[in-house]
Input
Amino acid sequence: MDNVIVVASGKGGTGKSTVCISLSVALVKQGKKVLLIDCDCGMRGLDIMLDIEQDILFDASDAVCGNCSFGEAIYKSRHNKNLFLMAAPFDAENELSPSVFKQLVDSVKNNFDYVIIDSPAGISSGFVTAAAPADKALIVTNAEPTSVRGALKVRKKLDALGVKNLRLVINRFDRKMFKKLGFYEDLDAVIDAAQTQLIALVPFSVDISVIMQRGAAGLEKSSALAVFDRLAERLEGKRVPLLYG
Output
Protein backbone atom coordinates (compact mmCIF):
# COMPACT_ATOMS: atom_id res chain seq x y z
CA MET A 1 0.00 0.00 0.00
CA ASP A 2 1.27 3.46 -0.92
CA ASN A 3 0.65 5.01 2.47
CA VAL A 4 3.31 7.70 2.92
CA ILE A 5 2.03 11.21 2.17
CA VAL A 6 4.10 14.38 2.32
CA VAL A 7 2.16 17.60 2.88
CA ALA A 8 3.99 20.56 1.38
CA SER A 9 3.55 24.23 0.53
CA GLY A 10 5.54 26.78 -1.41
CA LYS A 11 5.34 29.46 1.28
CA GLY A 12 4.65 29.67 4.97
CA GLY A 13 1.29 30.61 6.40
CA THR A 14 -0.90 28.44 4.18
CA GLY A 15 -2.13 26.32 7.10
CA LYS A 16 -0.18 23.24 6.04
CA SER A 17 0.32 21.90 9.58
CA THR A 18 -3.38 22.37 10.31
CA VAL A 19 -4.15 20.32 7.19
CA CYS A 20 -1.77 17.59 8.41
CA ILE A 21 -3.44 17.29 11.80
CA SER A 22 -7.02 17.67 10.58
CA LEU A 23 -6.51 15.03 7.90
CA SER A 24 -4.85 12.68 10.39
CA VAL A 25 -7.75 13.03 12.82
CA ALA A 26 -10.22 12.38 9.99
CA LEU A 27 -8.36 9.21 8.99
CA VAL A 28 -8.33 8.00 12.59
CA LYS A 29 -12.11 8.55 12.77
CA GLN A 30 -12.37 6.20 9.79
CA GLY A 31 -10.54 3.48 11.69
CA LYS A 32 -7.02 4.10 10.40
CA LYS A 33 -3.82 4.07 12.43
CA VAL A 34 -1.80 7.17 11.56
CA LEU A 35 1.75 8.34 12.25
CA LEU A 36 2.40 12.07 11.90
CA ILE A 37 6.04 13.03 11.36
CA ASP A 38 7.06 16.64 11.88
CA CYS A 39 9.91 17.31 9.44
CA ASP A 40 10.26 21.04 10.13
CA CYS A 41 13.57 20.94 12.00
CA GLY A 42 14.06 23.88 14.33
CA MET A 43 10.46 25.04 13.89
CA ARG A 44 8.42 22.08 15.08
CA GLY A 45 4.88 22.71 16.19
CA LEU A 46 2.76 19.58 15.80
CA ASP A 47 3.49 18.56 19.40
CA ILE A 48 1.89 21.80 20.62
CA MET A 49 -1.09 21.42 18.28
CA LEU A 50 -1.64 17.88 19.59
CA ASP A 51 -1.21 18.95 23.24
CA ILE A 52 1.71 16.60 23.86
CA GLU A 53 4.54 19.14 24.02
CA GLN A 54 5.43 18.12 27.59
CA ASP A 55 5.56 14.42 26.64
CA ILE A 56 8.33 14.74 24.05
CA LEU A 57 11.69 13.42 25.24
CA PHE A 58 13.10 12.10 21.96
CA ASP A 59 12.78 13.20 18.34
CA ALA A 60 13.58 11.76 14.92
CA SER A 61 17.29 12.60 15.17
CA ASP A 62 17.53 10.79 18.51
CA ALA A 63 16.07 7.69 16.89
CA VAL A 64 18.59 7.57 14.04
CA CYS A 65 21.54 8.51 16.28
CA GLY A 66 20.80 5.65 18.66
CA ASN A 67 19.82 7.80 21.64
CA CYS A 68 16.54 5.88 21.73
CA SER A 69 14.68 3.21 19.80
CA PHE A 70 12.41 4.21 16.93
CA GLY A 71 9.42 3.28 19.06
CA GLU A 72 10.55 5.52 21.92
CA ALA A 73 10.52 8.51 19.53
CA ILE A 74 6.84 7.91 18.68
CA TYR A 75 4.26 9.49 20.99
CA LYS A 76 0.53 8.83 21.24
CA SER A 77 -1.97 11.64 20.88
CA ARG A 78 -3.87 12.32 24.09
CA HIS A 79 -7.21 12.94 22.41
CA ASN A 80 -7.12 10.66 19.38
CA LYS A 81 -6.85 6.89 19.60
CA ASN A 82 -4.51 5.48 16.93
CA LEU A 83 -2.88 8.86 16.15
CA PHE A 84 0.86 9.07 16.86
CA LEU A 85 3.57 11.71 16.42
CA MET A 86 7.30 11.68 15.79
CA ALA A 87 8.63 15.16 16.51
CA ALA A 88 11.19 17.11 14.52
CA PRO A 89 14.51 18.04 16.15
CA PHE A 90 14.52 21.36 18.01
CA ASP A 91 17.77 22.36 16.31
CA ALA A 92 17.99 22.88 12.56
CA GLU A 93 21.53 21.50 12.47
CA ASN A 94 20.09 18.08 13.39
CA GLU A 95 18.16 17.90 10.12
CA LEU A 96 18.25 14.40 8.66
CA SER A 97 19.53 13.63 5.18
CA PRO A 98 16.99 12.38 2.60
CA SER A 99 18.49 8.86 2.57
CA VAL A 100 18.52 8.54 6.37
CA PHE A 101 14.98 9.89 6.69
CA LYS A 102 13.75 7.47 4.04
CA GLN A 103 15.31 4.58 5.94
CA LEU A 104 13.62 5.79 9.12
CA VAL A 105 10.18 6.00 7.50
CA ASP A 106 10.62 2.67 5.70
CA SER A 107 11.40 1.02 9.03
CA VAL A 108 8.16 2.14 10.71
CA LYS A 109 5.57 2.63 7.95
CA ASN A 110 4.30 -0.95 7.94
CA ASN A 111 3.05 -0.46 11.50
CA PHE A 112 0.60 2.21 10.31
CA ASP A 113 -2.14 2.62 7.73
CA TYR A 114 -0.85 6.09 6.88
CA VAL A 115 2.29 8.11 7.51
CA ILE A 116 1.68 11.85 7.12
CA ILE A 117 4.83 13.99 6.83
CA ASP A 118 4.64 17.71 7.56
CA SER A 119 7.27 19.28 5.32
CA PRO A 120 8.85 22.67 5.99
CA ALA A 121 7.54 25.35 3.65
CA GLY A 122 9.45 26.01 0.44
CA ILE A 123 11.76 23.76 -1.54
CA SER A 124 14.95 23.85 0.53
CA SER A 125 16.90 20.84 1.85
CA GLY A 126 14.31 20.13 4.54
CA PHE A 127 11.63 19.77 1.88
CA VAL A 128 13.81 17.36 -0.11
CA THR A 129 14.27 15.27 3.04
CA ALA A 130 10.54 15.25 3.78
CA ALA A 131 9.68 14.18 0.23
CA ALA A 132 12.27 11.38 0.03
CA PRO A 133 10.05 8.54 1.36
CA ALA A 134 6.75 9.85 -0.04
CA ASP A 135 4.40 7.83 -2.25
CA LYS A 136 2.00 10.76 -2.60
CA ALA A 137 1.95 14.51 -1.98
CA LEU A 138 -0.66 17.03 -0.97
CA ILE A 139 0.29 20.56 -1.99
CA VAL A 140 -1.39 23.17 0.22
CA THR A 141 -2.04 26.64 -1.16
CA ASN A 142 -4.22 29.66 -0.55
CA ALA A 143 -6.12 31.18 -3.47
CA GLU A 144 -3.70 34.08 -3.96
CA PRO A 145 -0.93 34.56 -6.55
CA THR A 146 2.14 34.34 -4.28
CA SER A 147 0.87 31.17 -2.67
CA VAL A 148 -0.17 29.58 -5.97
CA ARG A 149 3.21 30.41 -7.52
CA GLY A 150 4.85 28.63 -4.59
CA ALA A 151 2.55 25.64 -5.09
CA LEU A 152 3.66 25.38 -8.72
CA LYS A 153 7.32 25.45 -7.69
CA VAL A 154 6.65 22.66 -5.20
CA ARG A 155 4.86 20.65 -7.86
CA LYS A 156 7.79 20.95 -10.27
CA LYS A 157 10.28 20.01 -7.55
CA LEU A 158 8.22 16.96 -6.55
CA ASP A 159 8.11 15.90 -10.19
CA ALA A 160 11.89 16.18 -10.34
CA LEU A 161 12.19 14.09 -7.16
CA GLY A 162 10.01 11.37 -8.66
CA VAL A 163 6.87 11.89 -6.56
CA LYS A 164 4.15 11.63 -9.19
CA ASN A 165 0.88 11.21 -7.28
CA LEU A 166 0.16 14.86 -6.51
CA ARG A 167 -3.02 16.60 -5.40
CA LEU A 168 -3.88 20.20 -4.52
CA VAL A 169 -5.54 21.40 -1.31
CA ILE A 170 -6.85 24.95 -1.46
CA ASN A 171 -6.94 26.03 2.18
CA ARG A 172 -8.52 28.95 4.06
CA PHE A 173 -10.85 29.71 1.16
CA ASP A 174 -13.23 32.62 1.59
CA ARG A 175 -15.55 32.89 -1.41
CA LYS A 176 -16.51 36.54 -0.82
CA MET A 177 -12.90 37.60 -0.36
CA PHE A 178 -11.86 35.57 -3.42
CA LYS A 179 -14.37 37.40 -5.62
CA LYS A 180 -13.54 40.80 -4.11
CA LEU A 181 -9.80 40.42 -4.67
CA GLY A 182 -10.37 39.35 -8.27
CA PHE A 183 -6.95 37.73 -8.75
CA TYR A 184 -8.51 34.76 -10.55
CA GLU A 185 -11.67 34.44 -12.63
CA ASP A 186 -12.71 31.29 -10.78
CA LEU A 187 -11.31 28.29 -8.91
CA ASP A 188 -10.50 26.54 -12.17
CA ALA A 189 -8.02 29.33 -12.87
CA VAL A 190 -6.31 28.66 -9.52
CA ILE A 191 -6.10 24.95 -10.28
CA ASP A 192 -4.73 25.64 -13.76
CA ALA A 193 -2.07 27.99 -12.35
CA ALA A 194 -0.96 25.37 -9.83
CA GLN A 195 -1.04 22.66 -12.54
CA THR A 196 -2.27 20.15 -9.96
CA GLN A 197 -5.57 18.29 -9.63
CA LEU A 198 -7.75 19.52 -6.77
CA ILE A 199 -8.62 17.08 -3.98
CA ALA A 200 -9.98 19.41 -1.27
CA LEU A 201 -11.32 22.93 -0.84
CA VAL A 202 -11.09 23.97 2.81
CA PRO A 203 -13.09 27.01 3.95
CA PHE A 204 -11.60 29.74 6.07
CA SER A 205 -12.64 28.97 9.64
CA VAL A 206 -11.70 30.72 12.85
CA ASP A 207 -12.97 27.64 14.69
CA ILE A 208 -10.32 25.41 13.09
CA SER A 209 -7.53 27.83 13.99
CA VAL A 210 -8.72 28.04 17.60
CA ILE A 211 -8.99 24.26 17.92
CA MET A 212 -5.43 23.79 16.63
CA GLN A 213 -3.89 26.43 18.87
CA ARG A 214 -5.66 24.96 21.90
CA GLY A 215 -4.25 21.54 21.14
CA ALA A 216 -7.82 20.27 20.94
CA ALA A 217 -7.76 18.45 17.58
CA GLY A 218 -10.18 15.55 17.83
CA LEU A 219 -11.55 16.91 21.11
CA GLU A 220 -13.50 19.96 19.92
CA LYS A 221 -15.73 19.96 16.86
CA SER A 222 -16.42 22.34 13.96
CA SER A 223 -18.65 21.89 10.94
CA ALA A 224 -15.77 23.12 8.76
CA LEU A 225 -13.77 19.99 9.66
CA ALA A 226 -16.21 17.88 7.61
CA VAL A 227 -14.09 18.83 4.60
CA PHE A 228 -11.29 16.68 6.00
CA ASP A 229 -13.62 13.71 6.40
CA ARG A 230 -14.25 13.96 2.66
CA LEU A 231 -10.54 14.36 1.96
CA ALA A 232 -9.81 11.21 3.95
CA GLU A 233 -12.45 9.32 1.97
CA ARG A 234 -11.03 10.54 -1.32
CA LEU A 235 -7.55 9.37 -0.30
CA GLU A 236 -9.14 5.98 0.35
CA GLY A 237 -10.31 5.94 -3.26
CA LYS A 238 -13.95 6.67 -2.54
CA ARG A 239 -15.86 8.78 -5.04
CA VAL A 240 -17.26 11.52 -2.87
CA PRO A 241 -17.86 15.10 -4.00
CA LEU A 242 -15.86 18.06 -2.83
CA LEU A 243 -17.42 19.73 0.17
CA TYR A 244 -17.28 23.41 0.93
CA GLY A 245 -19.25 24.75 3.86
